Amino acid sequence: MTAVTTPGRRRDLALLWHQVRYEQLSFWRNPQSAFFTFVFPVVIIVLFGALFGHGAGSSYFYGLPALQYYVPTIAAVSVLGSCYSQLAIVLALRRQNGILKRVRGTPLPAWAYFLGLLAHCVMVSVIDVALIVGVGRLYGVPLPGNWAAIAVALLLGAASFCALGVAVASLIRNAEAAPPVVQLVLFPLIFVSGTYFPIHSAMLNRIAGALPVRPFNQALLGPFAHHAGLDWKSLGVLLAWGAVGALVAIRRFRWDPRPQ
Amino acid sequence: MSSAVVVAGLDKNYGSVRAVRDVSFTVARGEIFALLGPNGAGKTTTLEVLEGFRTRDAGRAEVLGIDPGARATARALRERVGLVLQDIAVEPYLTVRETVARNAGYYPAPRDVDEVIALAGLAGQARQKVRVLSGGQQRRLDLALGMIGNPELLFLDEPTTGFDPSARRGAWQIVRALREAGTTIVLTTHYMDEAQALADRVAVMAGGQIVAQGTPSAIGGRDTARTRIRFALPRGSTLGDLPAAAVPGDDGLVTVQTTEPTQTLHRLTGWALGRGTVLDRLTVDRPSLEDVYLRLTGDDEPAPVLEGSTR
Predict the structure, then answer these.
(1) Of residues A5, A107, A256, nearest to B78 (C-beta)
(2) Is the minimum CB–CB distance between B36 and chain A shorter than 8 Å?
(3) Which end of chain A has a smaller Cβ tally under 10 Å, C or N?
């Protein structure tokens, strides 16, 4: 009979790519995910563009033209949507429908499944961010100088919010509860983090700075708007939240719709 | 060659509920083995322990020589085993072909995607989205996913529940074709005719235990059970007039049990002809698998005649 084989690294990579391709296919075919997750942030930045246009810098936006402030924060919203919200809702739904259990019954390793999802989410985010930057360009927002710092912040943010998304999916019992729970957590976070309105309260900023969304905004705002490099402090907070999410996900994630 | 599945003294509890108690059976390679029983008998729990979805509380389990609960060998085992679970679970927005092709990519040596789609009777739906398929078609897609990895062993949990009669025959054809090709099949069912039509061996489960196992024709003493001769008592006759001991049933027929059917039937028909009458609605049979099943699973209250029929 066949011995227990250790599959080669090339086969693993091919498997991962295979998985990403089909995640992409499922995502783009689903009108809900394609619209709410992908199109929504683009719609917002277009609206803000129409509202604020080619404005001059204002102290309300820390001396920046409004849109130059909003390009990085709405870019962050798109990552939150495609990584955190989308993942939590999709995983809760797939578990309830038995799809996760079905996946568990195939030889696809768990790491390949989750890494495939992560890669898929990152790809969706990257396209979204590119579109948002493109809309910003139309309103005269200059292209950022430090792409490397942006790439690091995006990747770390995407990974951390994916981990948090899986964690929330692990804690929710049924799929119907997923969208409200996801929104209930995210909505106030986005508001106190200065995503839609800059916040000038030092106290609020200190609190929000310890939560996951504001550090992500800051890590993007620096290189996007001020030609800054890596914002180590914000990235550190983001990483810590990602680690918490990963820990909860690893300990509590279930494949089976029914508990043991 | 070793057995495909070995289960010995298997126990599984959910809290205080003892879902599976001391279950033991072996499945030979190339065999179709059926776990037959009513809902809640422990069939699916037993299967899920073997599929690696559930841990066991006691006992031994071996699938293709591998412990299904061992993490280190889980991937290697899943490459050799196919599953069809009780609930239909398929991504709604992919097409049939995409769904099968995706799963094919998970196995080291899968079968041909189009061949499997055709075998499942979905060739005409290959390019349709899964969500527009009927329930029966989705179930057949499930079956296609179970066999795409070219498994040595296939677990089928109630594979034809909800099928119309012709779809069931079609599914049976597929299962038989897989067995012909050398696949070992372990299935659960609560359909007697399915066990009878497909299985080489059957284990009847009730209340978490195996209450009988054997070939469909011999299980529960079917092969050694006494033959039943049933007929309407001729008008004007009483039970005492008959040349053989008979018991009345609630359907107006009387039943004679015998180990010598040829002789007993001859005496009865001779008696009737001698009195110038007939044995109306005469039938001769042995307990069906259904009778045995109902007796073994304790589901037979409305059949007092059957109660005393086998030993």
Answers:
(1) A107
(2) no
(3) N
